[in-house]
Amino acid sequence: MANPEHPSGSTPGPRGPAPGVAVALGRLRLPNPILVASGTFGYGREMTGLVDLRRLGGAIPKTITPLPRPGNVPWRTVETAAGLLNSIGLDNDGVDSFVANLLPWLAACGAPVIVSIAGANEADFVSLARRLDGVAGVAALELNISCPNVSHGVDLGTDPVACRSVVAGVRAATALPVIAKLTPNVTDIVAIARAARDGGADAVTLINTCQGMAVDWRRRKPLLGNVIGGLSGPAIKPIALRCVHQVRQAVDIPIIGVGGIMTIDDVMEFLVTGASAVQVGTANFAEPIVSTRLLDALPGALADLGANQVGDIVGTLALPTAVAPCPSSAATTGRLDHAR
């Protein structure tokens, strides 16, 4: 029977002191690499009595916008075979209400608070960054330029020029660390990550949800009120790992990995692939204490690799020294024609 603290089934030998779990994302220092993703943990208050928020590496509450938003019409969520489709539509009470009524309580809980912000255009992002600059309890900003559930949600995250511009605008408006949350719904994630870095981002979050939909074939109608939503959960983990790998190989910027993380194996896969920290999202709905369970298992997993701290294993994936290129379509066509 597998050891529950070691999913591979191995039995650990004698160990020295527990490895250190603190991490650094550029200027942003976090007590550990296990964060909770925006939109999956409410504003923290919903989890009191279940989770000790002081133990989180960081708390990212629901995305806030300049003005209140009612969100999209129901249905807003649909469970899938290996994840969750959501089309919430950035339902929130606006930045002023957040600062006055929600942030003080959340900041007092002890976890670093990374505020997720979104707007319809660059000016909205800059305005939000300026409003939150210097506000007590805010450790960093995460720019949600990748939400697929509003009409303008991915506009700034799919074009490198627009991405660089909005990040640069925010960078000039605040002294806070800036994290750009990027969408996988692009042709070249590396180009977008490079643009975020060039605009002054301290780190990037990879990835936001993948666009998808669900259909009731008997009624011949889509299930989501907004028709298309964002897919999260275990189904997107391979996509998220691919994005982390590609960005890690090409862009010198810290990465926060997110997408389908449910077990300590998932956490370790993201870390060795190149993420310096991770966010737990959809799993919070199924198991609210998942983040602290993963944190409890982290020192043992690090010790299994002989690591003294999280940074020792980040980006240590052993890659093949050479990969045979795929033949070009022209060459393939020529061979097929010759065979005929």
Number of helices: 9
- How far apart lie the N and C ends? 56 Å
- Overall pLDDT level: 91
Give the low-confidence spans.
Answer: 1-14, 328-340
How much strand content do the residues show? 15-25%
Full CATH superfamily name: Aldolase class I
How does the major sheet shape up? 8 strands, parallel
> What is the strand tally?
16
- The string of secondary-structure elements, in order, is EEEEEEHEHEHEHEEEEEHEHEHHH
What share of residues is helical? 25-40%
Tell me the domain tally.
1
What's the CATH architecture name? Alpha-Beta Barrel
Please characterize this protein's 3D structure.
- The protein has 340 residues and is α/β, with parallel strands linked by helices.
- It has one domain: Aldolase class I (TIM Barrel, Alpha-Beta Barrel).
- Helices cover 30% and strands 17% of the residues.
- The protein is built from nine helices and 16 strands.
- The protein has helices spanning 95-107, 122-132, 160-173, 189-199, 237-250, 264-273, 283-286, 290-304, 329-339; strands at 23-25, 28-30, 34-36, 58-59, 77-80, 83-86, 114-117, 140-144, 178-182, 203-206, 210-213, 215-216, 221-222, 228-232, 255-258, 277-280.
- The strands form four sheets. The chain has an eight-stranded parallel β-sheet. Strands 5-6-14-11 form a four-stranded antiparallel β-sheet, with no helix packed on it. A two-stranded antiparallel ribbon has the order 1-2.
- A hairpin with a 2-residue loop joins strand 1 and strand 2 (28-30).
- Helix 3 (160-173) runs parallel beside helix 4 (189-199).
- The termini are far apart.
- Residues 1-14 and 328-340 have low confidence and may be disordered.
